[in-house]
Design brief:
Layout: H1 17-26, H2 30-43, E1 47-49, H3 75-84, H4 140-146, H5 150-158, H6 165-176, H7 188-196, H8 201-219, H9 231-245, H10 252-262, H11 266-270, H12 274-281, H13 285-296, E2 318-322, E3 335-339, E4 347-349, H14 351-358, H15 366-400, H16 402-407, H17 417-424, H18 428-435, E5 439-442, E6 445-448, E7 456-458, E8 464-466, H19 467-479, H20 489-498, H21 505-514, H22 520-523
Parallel strand pairs: 2-5
Antiparallel strand pairs: 1-4, 2-3, 5-6, 7-8
Helix pairs in contact: 1-15, 3-6, 5-6, 6-8, 7-8, 9-10, 10-13, 12-13, 17-18, 20-21
């Protein structure tokens, strides 16, 4: 076979670094984007954040990076040192600069002049004022941190107990081992083995004895039920407290029956198996019914009121508000859609560094610094494009779902990603990235953008009904049902059919489970 040369023409798609970064920024949530911006600000000297304290005319030369604070010792390390009587010196973390990675080609043309995109972006967004002049402004996160935790509440009660140093250390260790609900997830043997090690059985036995005494002390503290190892023990502790206090609302016979119920497998209580519980408890149906009602009033999570609610805080990306009254021509309410100014980053290219680079063309390392400058420009442009795309998609969603913002869930229309993609000329994957982990604040609540999309179910008139509207109807039917005779899935399907919506029983069951509604046998009131 003779060697030869051949020419072939082909086409293939290549994603440039700019496009890869644009796609990656589009799918990030608000928190992840803030972390990405902080990382880019640390790595790229040509990128800076605008601030009202450092005007552009003064160039902000006196602003410097705040040094990182020293790491604090955790409570677990202090506890371990107090319990074992030993101390360990932790070496400070050494920040070693990483080696320079291969820089992607950002398509720079070698120009270091100030481009139009070098101007600050997000300048119209007002800076969030975290400190008031009067000092009266308090954020929700600060209020959440100011609340007392379960461990601190228990430690404060333990100070009033007259204990030896060893028993106080054991009680401290158990308090720190509680989970957020106030339960001891690990057994006393596991806690002792973790503290003493597997090679010392005598010390493990001694620690188990100390922990047993400390657990009794822990279970005598408030809230009642704390320090239990399982749900049955937690309920038993609360019932015993009711029996000791002799409250008028708790009949002694009812409390004893409730204690016998807690000794049985809790699956029977969850299924509300009145007949079997009456047999095993040896009481009448009325007495068993009263005992089950008493158990239902107990607290299965003693640490619930100490839980930190900061994790539920959601910062919306888009804000929707009504634009005055409905228009007189079409009688429809109009809405204004805008990006939340609190999530808009205020970035710009550092003009001092860019000007210095412009005045030293051809110097050593000029090409690498020019790539960094081009990278900063593309980063600002991609962030601006990200928020522009989110705003376009949000406006299209609001236009399609105007009835929802006016009348609620029952007016939700069927909507799929392809509808918005065809309207805006984008790909479905782009719409999926935009609607993931992005939230919209509306006059009736805050929702994820994906919430407004849903499949359609056929109706008798030949139209489609949104699955969100169907779930809202199921929720209304269940809320209005008789507690003595709750509606089954088949009956819910029949009610939907009367509304003109064709929905199978299995689909109703799937929607009911998605709404976290129990089956009919568990919703029945005793």
């Amino acid at each position: 076979m003779k060697p030869g040369l051949s020419l072939r023409v082909s086409q293939h798609l290549t994603l440039t670094p700019q496009l890869q970064q644009s796609i990656r920024l589009l799918q990030l949530s608000t928190l992840e984007l803030a972390q990405e911006i902080e990382q880019m600000l640390d790595e790229n000297p040509f990128l800076e954040r605008m601030s009202d304290e450092a005007p552009r005319e003064e160039f902000g030369l006196d602003s410097a990076d705040t040094p990182a604070q020293a790491d604090d010792y955790s409570a677990d390390e202090v506890l371990f040192s107090a319990a074992t009587g030993s101390s360990a010196e932790t070496p400070p973390d050494a920040d070693t600069p990483g080696s320079a990675a291969d820089e992607p080609d950002w398509g720079g043309d070698g120009c270091v002049e100030m481009a139009p995109s070098d101007a600050e972006w997000g300048g119209d967004a007002p800076a969030s004022q975290h400190n008031d002049a009067e000092g009266d402004g308090i954020e929700a996160t600060e209020l959440a941190h100011s609340e007392e935790s379960l461990a601190a509440f228990l430690h404060r009660q333990a100070l009033a107990l007259r204990l030896s140093e060893i028993d106080r250390a054991a009680l401290y260790f158990l308090i720190e081992s509680l989970n957020d609900d106030g339960y001891l997830e690990d057994s006393l043997e596991e806690l002792a083995s973790a503290l003493a090690g597997q090679q010392n059985p005598e010390q493990i036995e001694e620690l188990v004895h100390r922990f047993t005494v400390a657990q009794r002390l822990l279970q005598s503290l408030e809230p009642v039920g704390v320090g239990a190892r399982n749900l049955a023990e937690c309920l038993t502790l609360q019932l015993n407290a009711l029996a000791r206090e002799r409250e008028p609302a708790a009949d002694p016979q009812t409390v004893q029956t409730a204690l016998r119920i807690c000794q049985q497998p809790l699956q029977m209580l969850a299924r509300r198996d009145l007949r079997r519980l009456t047999q095993v408890c040896g009481d009448s149906q009325e007495g068993t019914r009263a005992a089950m009602a008493l158990i239902a009033r107990l607290e299965p999570h003693p640490g619930r009121r100490f839980a930190n609610v900061q994790r539920n805080v959601i910062v919306p990306d888009v804000i929707v508000r009504k634009a005055g009254r409905a228009n007189g021509r079409d009688g429809r309410q109009h809405f204004i859609v805008q990006i939340n100014p609190d999530v808009l980053p205020r970035l710009r290219v550092h003009d001092i560094y860019a000007g210095a680079l412009r005045g030293h063309k051809g110097g050593a390392g000029h090409q690498g610094m020019q790539q960094r400058l081009q990278e900063a420009r593309w980063f600002i442009k991609n962030i601006q494009q990200r928020f522009d795309t989110i705003l376009r998609v949000s406006r299209a969603i609001v236009e399609r779902q105007k009835n929802f913002f006016t009348h609620g869930e029952l007016a939700m229309r069927p909507l799929v990603l392809r509808d918005i993609a065809d309207e805006l000329g984008l790909h479905e994957s782009t719409i999926s990235r935009v609607t993931t982990a992005k939230y919209m604040a509306t006059p009736i609540g805050t929702y994820e953008l994906k919430y407004f999309f849903g499949s359609g179910l056929g109706t008798e008139t030949g139209g489609n009904a949104s699955s969100t509207a169907v779930r809202a109807l199921i929720r209304q039917f269940v809320a209005a049902e008789s507690q003595a005779k709750p509606l089954s899935d088949s009956q819910l399907a029949d009610l939907l059919k009367e509304q003109g919506i064709e929905c199978a029983r299995r689909t109703v069951a799937k929607y009911r489970e998605a709404l976290k509604i129990a089956p009919a046998n568990l919703r029945r009131t005793l």
